[in-house]
């Protein structure tokens, strides 16, 4: 699966969501979230909100293809980046709650893929001209993540337990910090943009290892969070196709789109 433009990224993600609903595959949880992110970015391009819409189309296409490559590698032979292997490896784990599946995908895509896509879109000194548009796409990503996470409450009646044990706030969910990861993604994009191919490959490897470590912390948090997750999971909807359908409509359900302008 490889996209040539943002329309094909949207279509590819819609295909994954459709197949996941048919098969009852939890890969559709993050794919539904990510489809909405891409739809929002595409609309922002059409509305002229980016400094360079054509560049952002290329950026989002590179970003999307990082996910498609990881997805295809996992389906083919369980290979691909470490952080995505950690994420996909939990799809069949009945003990992993919905919000964990979402944040695991977000972790891999922000802490690894976002910086790589940005550096390849605008290598060298050109990366600085990308900053404003990068921050805008980052804002869209974070907004959709929070909208989808908010909508999970209808599927997960005890999700508020995470608030009580300090594992869920607007900026931090489990062991994943939305704000910190967004800031680090830009720092890493600037770093990667200035490296040669050999140096870039080594740095991407280090970013992947770090994101994989974070994935393990998200999947198996310590303290009171783990028993809270067990209680949450016991009351969550087990109807995977219905959960995917619900997540795929999160922006409409929360009214997040209307709050963006």
H/I helix tally: 12
Strand order of the largest sheet: 1-2
Main sheet specs: 2 strands, antiparallel
List the uncertain runs.
257-261
Strand content: under 5%
Please trace the helix and strand order, writing H or E for each element: HHHHHHHEEHHHHH
What is the typical, i.e. mean, pLDDT?
A: 89
Radius of gyration: 17 Å
The percent range for helix content is: 55-70%
Terminal CA distance: 33 Å
Spatial shape = globular
Number of strands: 2
Instruction: Please identify the structural class as seen in this structure.
Output: mainly alpha
Commentary on this structure:
The protein is 70% helix and 2% strand. The protein is mostly helical. The longest helix has 25 residues, at 53-77. It has helices at 6-23, 27-46, 53-77, 82-88, 98-121, 131-151, 161-164, 178-193, 197-219, 225-235, 240-247, 250-254; strands at 172-173, 176-177. It contains twelve helices and two strands, in the order H-H-H-H-H-H-H-E-E-H-H-H-H-H. A hairpin with a 2-residue loop joins strand 1 and strand 2. It has a two-stranded antiparallel ribbon. The chain starts with 5 loop residues before the first helix and ends in a 7-residue tail after the last helix. Helix 1 (6-23) packs antiparallel against helix 11 (240-247).
């Amino acid at each position: 699966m490889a996209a040539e433009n943002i329309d094909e990224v949207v279509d590819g993600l819609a295909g994954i969501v459709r197949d996941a609903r048919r098969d009852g595959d939890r890969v559709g949880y993050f794919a539904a979230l990510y489809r909405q992110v891409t739809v929002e970015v595409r609309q922002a391009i059409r509305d002229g909100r980016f400094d360079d819409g054509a560049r952002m189309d290329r950026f989002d296409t590179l970003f999307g293809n990082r996910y498609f490559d990881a997805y295809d590698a996992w389906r083919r032979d369980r290979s691909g980046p470490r952080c995505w292997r950690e994420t996909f490896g939990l799809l069949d784990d009945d003990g992993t709650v919905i919000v964990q599946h979402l944040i695991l995908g977000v972790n891999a895509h922000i802490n690894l893929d976002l910086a790589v896509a940005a550096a390849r879109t605008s290598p060298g000194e050109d990366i600085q001209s990308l900053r404003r548009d990068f921050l805008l796409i980052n804002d869209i990503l974070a907004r959709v993540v929070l909208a989808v996470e908010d909508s999970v409450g209808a599927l997960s009646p005890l999700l508020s337990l995470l608030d009580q044990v300090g594992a869920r706030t607007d900026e931090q969910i489990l062991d994943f910090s939305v704000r910190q990861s967004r800031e680090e993604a830009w720092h890493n994009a600037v770093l990667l943009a200035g490296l040669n191919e050999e140096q870039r490959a080594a740095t991407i490897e280090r970013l992947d290892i770090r994101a994989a470590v974070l994935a393990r912390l998200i999947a198996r948090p310590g303290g009171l969070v783990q028993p809270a997750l067990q209680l949450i999971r016991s009351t969550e909807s087990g109807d995977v196709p219905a959960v995917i359908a619900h997540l795929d409509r999160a922006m409409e359900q929360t009214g997040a789109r209307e709050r963006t302008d």
